[in-house]
Design brief:
Blueprint (H helix, E strand, L loop, with lengths): L10 H21 L9 H9 L10 H13 L20 H13 L11 H17 L6 E5 L2 H15 L8 E6 L5 H8 L7 E4 L9 H13 L3 E8 L11 H11 L2 E6 L23 E5 H4 L7 E5 L18 H5 L18 H10 L2 H23 L4 E3 L7 E6 L7 H18 L5 E5 L2 E7 L7 H26 L1
Parallel strand pairs: 2-3, 2-4, 4-5, 5-6
Antiparallel strand pairs: 1-7, 6-7, 8-9, 9-11, 10-11
Helix pairs in contact: 1-3, 4-12, 5-12, 6-7, 8-9, 14-15
The protein binds pyridoxal-5'-phosphate.
Amino acid sequence: MRSHLLNDLTAEHYRRSVTEGVERVAAKLATTDRPFTGVTVDALAPRIDAIDLDRPLSDTGLALDELEDVYLRDAVYFHHPRYLAHLNCPVVIPAVLGEAVLSAVNSSLDTWDQSAGGTLIERRLIDWTAERIGLGTAADGVFTSGGTQSNLQALLLAREEAKGDSLAKLRIFASEVSHFSVQKSAKLLGLGEESVVSVPVDHDKRLQTVALARELERCRRDGLVPMAVVATAGTTDFGSIDPLPEIAELCAQYGTWLHVDAAYGCGLLASLKYRDRLAGIERADSVTVDYHKSFFQPVSSSAVLVRDASTLRHATYHAEYLNPHRMVRERIPNQVDKSLQTTRRFDALKLWMTLRVMGADGIGELFDEVCDLAEEGWQCLAADPRFDVVVRPSLSTLVFRYIPAAVTDPAEIDRANLHARKALFASGDAVVAGTKVGGRHYLKFTLLNPETQASDIAAVLDLIAGHAEQYLGESLDRAC
Ligand SMILES: Cc1ncc(COP(=O)(O)O)c(C=O)c1O
């Protein structure tokens, strides 16, 4: 069994095993002609359940054959141009290389004595990101597991900064289309669901600042404490960017912590064409960035940044066995002092390799391409009488609904759209997402693949129309 331990004696075994795995994945990627096979839970679950985990195959090749059967064949492939669903990006090769390196060396970024250069690389990337945002020289931050954790940590810091007031009085303001991790965080932070005040959005799905001003004033008048405003730079559903300068102004006026959730919109930090859409982000007290959404990085890769490094002390605890107080005096950089996690992956290496091979402009160029594609898709949808499209994209998302010429019942149109999404998924020809707008079912393309062409969008729209019409035809037959 020792031959499976990765060490000086097994370097050759490691090379052969990993190469064999890489060969299989490369072959798979090269021949995948659909984003999904359409496999059902009922078809796949018995194959996985049938495997006896107490009887190993004792051979890498056999295990990879089995993996083909239970995972690779039927995986959902984000690199395919017709995967248009959630906020998942195709990944860049330098980052995948970084992933392979980081898991083999297996540094843990909690302390300097478990990571050495890894800690310094992460710190450089935090500084690099903070500089791109414009947070100033006192900024700092830390890599996290994702936007949910970044938002949680930011709101923890905001809560602690508002300390002195009873938890029951604290209020968080976020738009009605902000990410649900805001509510989840409030719950985890002991604030209760009523602590999150939902602020309406305008026609473009951007937080209405007049409504925010009204809510902040009401909060003050009621003797409550405006703990934080969460502005979203790239909403999950619409890619809309809240009016950051106006929101920053209100936060300054009310002495409120401004958190910008740029989990999706952070790609604009590298953009060559659209960086100005993030104007105002530099006034944030904290920012969430998900490199695994718009920097083409593999999951996980995210960070939370803060304007004032000292606020990170709210996440600091010391243990004699890990990061004793004296290490602070000795200026030993232990990232665990800033993190909610203890043992932590060296995810930063993926971004490092990306920047060292491709450069930030390379990433920005790819993100600009998907933003341009979304604009093209919007033009196409807006001109197509078969569809109702919701907002002109600020990033790379399109939300729309098939409107059959002969049907006026909104509930029946809902069912046709729901059916179209399901049927498309079952066919595996394309994967699209769905959401509700004004209580009605809509479909969504999240465009993060520069390989997707306008012709793919047009073809998938035709498929959707076809499935919806088929449903309506059958539904008419049923009624007769
Ligand atoms: C705006 C926004 N914030 C936060 C998140 C949560 O990020 P994660 O899934 O990385 O936890 C998402 C995820 O889609 C998001 O769209």
